[in-house]
Amino acid sequence: MIRIPPPWQGDRAEDIWALYDFLLYKTLPFEPGDYLPKDSQGAYYYLDGDRTKQKVYPTHPFKKFELTQTSKVILSRAAVPTPNTPEELIQLVSPQLHQYLYQNNAVKRENLIELLTTQTDVKTIQDKKLNFTAKPELLKMLLFQVFKYDSFSSKKLFPKLVQMLGVEVCPYCNRSFTTTTRIRKGVYHRQNQVDHYRSKSKYPWFALTLPNLIPACGNCNLRKGDDEQYVLYPYQEEFGKQYHFHTTPISWTGYLMGQVVHPEEFEVKIERDPNAGPASNLDYERRVQTSIDKFGLDVLYRESHNAYVCAIFEQRYVFNDAYLDSLIDSFPDLFKSREEARQLLYMKRYDEDALGAAPLAKLTHDIDEEISRLYAEKTL
Ligand SMILES: [Zn+2]
User: Fold this and answer.
1) Which of 42, 239, 250, 328 is deepest in the core (most CB within 10 A)?
2) Is the same domain home to 173 and 317?
3) How much is the pLDDT for 352?
């Protein structure tokens, strides 16, 4: 599990919000003034969600509220009155959510914006009291009628938004690329999936919430499920220094001395660093374990990456410090340190700031560190 920097706070934040607002405008049944940014002329979005284009000031009312066929079926099964407005529907499904979103029949703008922009980790949602109770048999209607993720994600520019989030590698497994590519002008080809950290089915009011959207690989998205066992929240949490990969080679001394190595003699494990001190945050520890279990990370790495670890041992032996120093001497413009030279040999960045940039970067980082430690012990 790798932490990904919150893109809505980064260099592209304004571009991301502009596009996000545009997609919301195309999706939400609320009045534009209820959630779009405002200037002296009123609520606006940028044409095509592009900040280099002109502002558009939509007039309202602008959308007719119509029930989908599925909603009609749900309503007739539940034998409840037919709602004629988004407000009536929300009131029907969850009086708590209605109370949060409306006052005197008007949307509370700051609360709607809060709902769309909040981080959705366990603590934040508890602190902000955004765990609304709702009638389970009606819950889906929020997804069909209000927070319409299917509509949102089928917009032509949605893949562009996902691309702008800049998540190149699945943060859950750190194995698969999640790149979104453009195949020709104006048309995006989306390869990755987007996981809802809080599931759409249980928390439909977070279905469009930007910090709830996690670009992830298909396997992890599928395995995560929608129960209340939470994995780490990748916009805030990670394995970090506390949990690391390590190996138990049968004869590590031999491997460090260049003995021929065999993948089956390695066993990759994910363990709590014994030097990390006592566990102080039990919720975090539990989420780490849930992450390992749900994504099957221990089994996956053990069964799949022994040969890779084996290669790291070989590389550390062959490309030793003396060799790296000679590279630095020969190419002073390319390398400033042994770490930089080693990145080239591993063909990836594996420094702590860039673990999300390449598959297996965390594994590479941890095993590389482990080998350094073993070498240090050997010379003592
Ligand atoms: Zn994954």
Assistant:
1) 239
2) no
3) 83
